[in-house]
């Protein structure tokens, strides 16, 4: 594992994935009448699984970039994360903008939105730049010094 291979985009995606995963365990909605709070896992029917997939894909992208020797796998994972993250971000914006009736919004949805948005933006930026990570490209650049070939002994070729 070489953390020098991670660009700013991968750091943003990985940390945003961790933030989103942590936010799923925090309180999202508080129902004052009932005295009940719901975490991200309890607040949604199946959308919590989509958010967990986005979080795990974001963390996995950062790990794959640090571990995998070529850029092919991280680039593919970046494009998948951008697609799923974009859908999840739009869905989460709608959920945050219109909480369930009788519920007040806690800190969880805002942190979840920040994590989902950070993972999506980082993936979109990373998709735009399809080069190898900069550290690998710089480390693989080797300057070659050219030298003249030594003169042959015995004169010109083909002489007897």
Could you describe the 3D structure shown?
There is one protein chain. This protein is mainly α. The chain has a domain at 9-25 and 45-99 and 109-133. Helix content is 59%, strand content 8%. The protein contains six helices and three strands. The chain has helices at residues 8-23, 40-43, 47-67, 72-97, 108-128, 134-140; strands spanning 27-31, 36-39, 103-105. The chain has a three-stranded antiparallel beta sheet. Helix 1 (8-23) runs antiparallel to helix 3 and helix 3 crosses helix 5. It is rod-shaped. The protein starts with 7 loop residues before the first helix and ends in a 20-residue tail after the last helix. The mean pLDDT is 81.
Q: Pairing-aware structural class of the strands and helices?
A: mainly alpha
Radius of gyration: 25 Å
Average of pLDDT? 81
Listing every helix as H and every strand as E from the N terminus to the C terminus, the arrangement reads: HEEHHHEHH
Give the number of helices. 6
**Beta-strand residue fraction:** 5-15%
Shape: rod-shaped
Strand line-up of the largest beta sheet: 2-1-3
Main sheet characteristics? 3 strands, antiparallel
Number of strands: 3
Low-confidence stretches: none
Question: For the terminal residues, how far apart are their CA atoms?
Answer: 60 Å
State the share of residues found in helices, binned by percent: 55-70%
